[in-house]
């Protein structure tokens, strides 16, 4: 599976395809998606089966949620798969997206050095976690890339009434994988979606230190780009893909069946 991680570069270089036995007679479907669906291996699990079922090929651009939604706003893709509810609502309200559908969820977790210098394992809630990190001036690695994870992180700091301007705070402008690698190298803390954490955990000198707070819930949606705004998009293929993803006998079953190291990464929750 060839993956382009930066949306705007992807469009200049040409889209890649995840192929199986798809027909060359059908126009490719262009999907912009958060990097977590790629890093976790979920797309590798879903797309070959979809293409076998329908004959469509899917061209995927793996980018942060912010970049994915921007590509949708520009009509550069046919649908998006993202995980930032407020940004998604704005995308639909402004007329760029239609037919938003709940797809699945997992959660965010806070990881860091096993020594846990900020003692966040003793915290009762995520506000206490962030307070302990800031008060200690501990190293915290932020994605800083306008992704869904970055949006969640910024919201948590805001809800905790903490300005993340302490000396240990590092904004790196990178995807989740590089951010985790940097946290491991610097022995710092970071927030990550559970799926990417499980995919990377064996490669990192980090431990899962905090989880389970209701504020760390991480829902995903699939949203079609509005064909009235961009008539040239592949509306039919995008709708077929969206329908397949939320079908309880197709995409939803496969989402629930996906395991990594014996652990379920996502929970399907389409209505």
Topology at a glance:
Blueprint: H1 7-13, E1 17-18, E2 29-33, H2 35-39, H3 42-54, E3 58-62, H4 65-73, E4 79-82, H5 85-93, E5 97-112, H6 126-136, E6 140-142, H7 148-159, E7 169-171, H8 176-186, E8 190-193, H9 194-200, E9 207-210, E10 217-225, H10 235-246, H11 251-257, E11 259-260, E12 263-264, E13 267-268
Parallel strand pairs: 2-3, 2-4, 6-7
Antiparallel strand pairs: 1-3, 4-10, 5-8, 5-9, 5-10, 5-13, 11-12
Question: Can you offer a commentary on this structure?
Answer:
The chain is of the alpha+beta class and 271 residues long. It has 2 domains: 7-105 and 220-268, Periplasmic binding protein-like II (D-Maltodextrin-Binding Protein, domain 2); 107-216, D-Maltodextrin-Binding Protein, domain 2 (3-Layer(aba) Sandwich). Helix content is 38%, strand content 23%. It contains 11 helices and 13 strands. It has helices spanning 7-13, 35-39, 42-54, 65-73, 85-93, 126-136, 148-159, 176-186, 194-200, 235-246, 251-257, and strands at residues 17-18, 29-33, 58-62, 79-82, 97-112, 140-142, 169-171, 190-193, 207-210, 217-225, 259-260, 263-264, 267-268. Strands 1, 2, 3, 4, 5, 8, 9, 10 and 13 form a 9-stranded mixed β-sheet that branches. A two-stranded parallel ribbon has the order 6-7. The protein has a two-stranded antiparallel sheet with strand order 11-12. α7 links the parallel β6 (140-142) and β7. The chain is globular and about 60 Å long. The two termini are 30 Å apart. 46% of the residues are buried. Mean pLDDT is 92; it is low at 7-22.
């Amino acid at each position: 599976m060839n993956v382009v991680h930066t949306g705007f570069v992807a469009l200049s270089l040409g889209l890649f395809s995840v192929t199986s036995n798809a027909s060359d007679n059908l126009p490719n479907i262009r999907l912009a998606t958060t990097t977590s669906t790629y890093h976790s291996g979920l797309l590798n699990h879903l797309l070959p089966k979809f293409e076998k079922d329908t004959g469509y090929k899917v061209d995927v651009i793996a980018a942060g949620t912010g970049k994915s939604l921007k590509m949708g706003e520009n009509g550069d893709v046919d649908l998006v798969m993202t995980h930032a509810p407020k940004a998604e609502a704005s995308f639909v309200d402004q007329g760029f997206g239609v037919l938003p559908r709940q797809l699945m969820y997992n959660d965010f977790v806070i990881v860091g050095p096993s020594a846990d210098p900020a003692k966040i394992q003793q915290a009762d809630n995520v506000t206490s976690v962030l307070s302990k990190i800031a008060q200690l001036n501990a190293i915290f690695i932020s994605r800083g890339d306008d992704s869904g994870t970055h949006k969640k992180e910024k919201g948590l700091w805001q809800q905790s009434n903490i300005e993340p301007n302490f000396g240990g705070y590092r904004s790196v402008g990178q995807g989740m994988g590089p951010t985790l690698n940097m946290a491991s190298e610097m022995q710092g803390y970071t927030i990550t979606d559970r799926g990417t954490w499980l995919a990377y955990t064996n490669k990192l000198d980090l431990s899962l230190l905090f989880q389970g707070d209701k504020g760390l819930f991480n829902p995903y949606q699939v949203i079609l780009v509005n064909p009235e705004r961009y008539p040239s998009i592949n509306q039919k293929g995008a709708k077929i893909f969206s329908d397949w993803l939320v079908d309880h006998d197709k995409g939803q079953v496969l989402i629930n069946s996906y395991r990594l190291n014996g652990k379920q990464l996502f929970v399907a929750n389409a209505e």
